[in-house]
Amino acid sequence: RKEVEQDPGPFNVPEGATVAFNCTYSNSASQSFFWYRQDCRKEPKLLMSVYSSGNEDGRFTAQLNRASQYISLLIRDSKLSDSATYLCVVNYGADKIIFGKGTRLHILP
Amino acid sequence: DAGVTQSPTHLIKTRGQQVTLRCSPKSGHDTVSWYQQALGQGPQFIFQYYEEEERQRGNFPDRFSGHQFPNYSSELNVNALLLGDSALYLCASSAGQGIYEQYFGPGTRLTVT
Q1: Which of chain A's residues have a Cβ under 8 Å away from the Cβ of B103?
Q2: A 5-64 residues with CB < 8 A to B
Q3: Geometric angle at alpha carbon A77, from A72 and A81, rounded to 5°
Q4: Cβ within 8 Å, pair B106-A42
Q5: Average pLDDT in the B81-99 region?
Q6: What is the tens place of the pLDDT at every residue in B4-37?
Q7: Phi, psi (5° rounding) for residue A98?
Q8: Chain A contacts of B102, Cβ < 8 Å?
C-alpha cells in the first residue's frame, strides 16, 4: 500500500455542484495533514490544514478520520476557479513528509 | 509582504554538470524546505534547513546538498546531474523547525540534456 494515495481523477464536475476527494495514508503515526491546490505549471498553495475535529473555510470542508486513516476535502457550490490539482499532504513526524500525486478537478461551465 | 522567491526560473544543463538553485523565504519565516516535482507527480521532499543546518532529509542521494545563510535564504546544489534530475524544484518556507504550514515559491524548472 502506498504511503499516501489519491484518486488521480480527473473529476469533471458541473459548476455549482458539490465534490469530495479522499486521501488515504498508511502510517497510523501520522501527525499532521494538509490540503494544497496546484494550478497547471504553478507552485502548490496551502488550502487548509486538517484538524482532528474537522474544519471549514467558506465553501471548503476538511475532515480527518484516524480510525480509517483518510482525510477528505469537500467543495460546495463549485466555481470555475476551483479547477486545479488538489494535493494531500501527510506529515509522519520530524523526518518525513509525503505529498500525494494529486487529484485533478475540472469544473465545467 | 514578499512571498517566497526562487532563481533562476528555468535552467538547462547537461549530464555531469553541477547546478545551484536559490531561494529566499517569505518575510518572517526562518525554515526552508526543498522539493523535487516530476511531471504528473506530487512534490518529493529533499531536505529542510533551519538555523543554517540540515535538519531533515528525504530519500535523495548525497549529490543533493544545500546551505542556509544567516538571512534564512537557501541554496540547493546538485552535482553530477543525471537526466532523471529534470524536474521542477520547489522551495517552501515556514516558521519554526518541523513541517508546518508551508508557502511555496514559483519553482525552478531544471532540464538536463
Answers
A1: 45-46
A2: 32, 34, 42-46, 49
A3: 90
A4: yes
A5: 90
A6: 999 999 999 999 999 999 999 999 999 999 999 9
A7: -125, 130
A8: 46
